[in-house]
Specification:
Helix content is 30%, strand content 24%. With 422 residues, it is α/β, with parallel strands linked by helices. Strand 5, helix 3 and strand 6 form a beta-alpha-beta unit. The chain binds pyridoxal-5'-phosphate. The site of pyridoxal-5'-phosphate has 19 residues, from helix 10.
Length: 422
């Protein structure tokens, strides 16, 4: 995003043009920025540990165009469900380029995961005997809960430690691998995903140390040569203006250092290092363009836009901050205003008080920053306010990558029994 005078542009295209062509609300992704983010993260780690591969966690922004960009950059896919595996397959990713990190799997999830030949990061020891009923995978990984997790955006996305539903308790990890080895599984990896949006560089080497102390003992006692260790995602981005960014170089260097030290300490043959970030690639490369439709002066002044909590769920769902710009008015005198969507829910009053241009008016375009991660993917159709369009921008070019939903999409797949029509 940049300013051309007081006009906001994404890539080289003014948001006024994007709004005129595609309408609002619309998610807009900057392809060049996604690629640059990926390369920065990849190079930071690969520089210190060349046997390194990244998997894009598809749930973060699941548009196939975006997943294709990640594939072209060299990423595999990390999938949370069978449908995400199918999505990965549809863009040409399969086998060991796909990780299945779903949790609390059904028998059908397990069966289809096995049939698709992807690598399971099994979230619990109890799933192993169920999986073995359907087949013996060539390679297996377990998701370990190393006892500690963290997040910058509230406890909702802290994914490890005693309060989390994810991963295997450290005390059960040895048994899990022992059981897998006894079942004839030959190749092994290990996985963790302990938190999301972390900008503290020291966190990554710290949790890596925790995981490696658990896995190192398993490697030693069970004589397992781990082929890979997957440190999960969690590379954070700043959401608030002035918030410090993650020192990626430091995180990568220190993590690689701990990784080497621990593999040596436990006499492990150096495994491939894997990570599966997502927010870091697409978060700050995605924007949400909306329109101010109506302004109410009541107990306070409330600005009503077409960006409701159904379009961007994060603020209402876990109190996340998203910075908001008003096109053409950013340098105008400011005042504290509220901002809401059009849903019949008071949680849709998602900005209670924010410094915004005092002369914000009906028809103005607003741009929500850092909307690329967990934006569209978490959106829904409540109140008949349907899902937004998605647009990809590459320099001077823009391309529609998902149609705006229509009425037909709202009633598709519903059935009215004949007698109810009488
Ligand atoms: C969501 C998720 C990720 C990506 O997390 P980010 O914080 O966006 O990097 C990685 N791995 C797993 C298993 C996930 O569920």
């Amino acid at each position: 995003m940049k300013f051309i005078g007081d006009q906001i542009a994404i890539g080289n295209i003014p948001v006024t043009e994007l709004a005129a062509e595609y309408g609002t609300p619309t998610y807009v992704y900057d392809e060049q920025k996604i690629r640059a983010n990926y390369r920065r993260a990849y190079q930071a780690f690969a520089k210190h540990y060349p046997d390194f591969k990244m998997f894009y966690a598809v749930k973060c922004c699941n548009n196939p165009a975006i997943v294709n960009i990640m594939r072209q950059e060299g990423a595999g896919a990390d999938c949370a469900s069978v449908n995400e595996i199918l999505l990965a397959k549809s863009v040409g990713l399969s086998g060991e380029n796909v990780m299945f990190s779903g949790n609390f799997l059904s028998d059908s999830d397990i069966r289809q995961g096995l049939e698709s030949g992807v690598i399971f990061n099994l979230d619990d020891i109890s799933i192993l005997p169920r999986l073995l009923k359907f087949g013996t995978p060539e390679m297996l990984s377990f998701r370990v809960n190393p006892g500690y997790g963290k997040s910058n955006v509230g406890e909702y996305v802290t994914n490890a430690g005693p309060g989390a539903k994810f991963g295997i308790h450290p005390d059960q990890v040895m048994d899990a691998y022992r059981m897998a080895k006894a079942a004839g599984i030959k190749r092994f990896g290990a996985h963790m995903m302990t938190g999301s949006c972390i900008t503290d560089a020291d966190y990554f080497p710290f949790v890596t140390g925790l995981l490696m102390d658990i896995i190192g003992k398993v490697a030693k006692e069970l004589q397992i040569d781990f082929e890979f260790i997957d440190l999960g995602g969690g590379l954070g981005i700043p959401y608030k203006p002035g918030e410090p960014a993650l020192d990626l170089e430091k995180a990568a260097e220190k993590t690689a250092e701990v990784f080497r030290k621990k593999t040596a300490e436990y006499g492990m043959k150096p495994p491939q290092l894997k990570m599966e970030p997502a927010r870091f690639f697409v978060g700050n490369a995605g924007y949400l363009i909306g329109t101010v439709h109506s302004i109410k002066d009541s107990y306070s002044r409330i600005i009503g836009t077409d960006i409701g909590m159904n379009v961007l769920a994060r603020p209402a769902m876990y109190g996340s901050y998203h910075h908001i710009y008003v096109n053409g008015k950013e340098s105008h005198p400011r005042t504290k205003l509220g901002l809401c969507g059009q849903l019949c829910e008071n949680t849709d009053f998602w900005v209670k008080e924010r410094d915004l241009p005092a002369d914000i008016a009906e028809g103005d375009l607003i741009v929500v920053e850092n909307a690329g991660a967990y934006g569209f993917g978490m959106s829904y159709q409540y109140n008949g306010r349907l899902r937004a369009a998605e647009v990809l921008v590459n320099g001077d070019k823009s391309m529609l990558i998902r149609d705006r939903e229509q009425f037909e999409d709202m009633i598709r797949h519903t059935h009215v029994p004949e007698y109810l029509k009488k």
